[in-house]
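In these records, each integer encodes one residue's backbone shape. Here is one protein:

___
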Amino acid sequence: MTDKLNIYCFIGSLPSRAVIILTKVLDIPVELNAVNILKGEQNSYWYKKINPVMKVPALAHGYFTLSESRAIMAYLVDTKMPGGCGLYPKDPRKRAKVDERLFFDATTFFPKVSSILQAYMKNKSECDRKQAIEDLMPVLKTMEEFLSETEYFACNEMTIADISMFPTVTTVYDIGIDLSKFPKLISWCQKMQKIPGNDINEAGGKVLLEALGMKPKL
């Protein structure tokens, strides 16, 4: 099997950005293949063969393919850092805590933010948009509580759980949601903005805001 890594992604996609940022943090060579979901390219026949779910991102490593950003991130660390590293620890309990935060992201945080984005993309009423934002507030409170226990979401050092949530948190800020009640989340985000790949996150944020018909914050 060739060692060449192909990532199929759309820079405006939050999960895509998380995977790209991880490749920058790990400093591993990958080939990025753009799949413009705004033009429906994820529904094409050729892409369905790579990812039957027809979402981004997806990974192809030789003949091996993988979808779901969090699974891809875990795979990248395990294959490119076989000796283990703090991003996805080998210790069962430490890894379980990272997984716990990843599952929280996948089942709770990301879906709430996605609902807000969909409310804008589908031109839903102002009432619907406000309700979607209100539904997010308890989740942000929980995240603030996580950060009261440790410096990062799973422990006192950055893990793939942090990288996974990073683009989603910055999107919450970019679309104008007030985070002033969550100082620890703001502090965490400021630390994350210093990691490799933040330029990708900022560029992707602009693409997403343009798709939503919003202007970037100055």
In short: The beta strands are 5-9, 31-34, 58-61, 64-67. The chain has a mean pLDDT of 95.
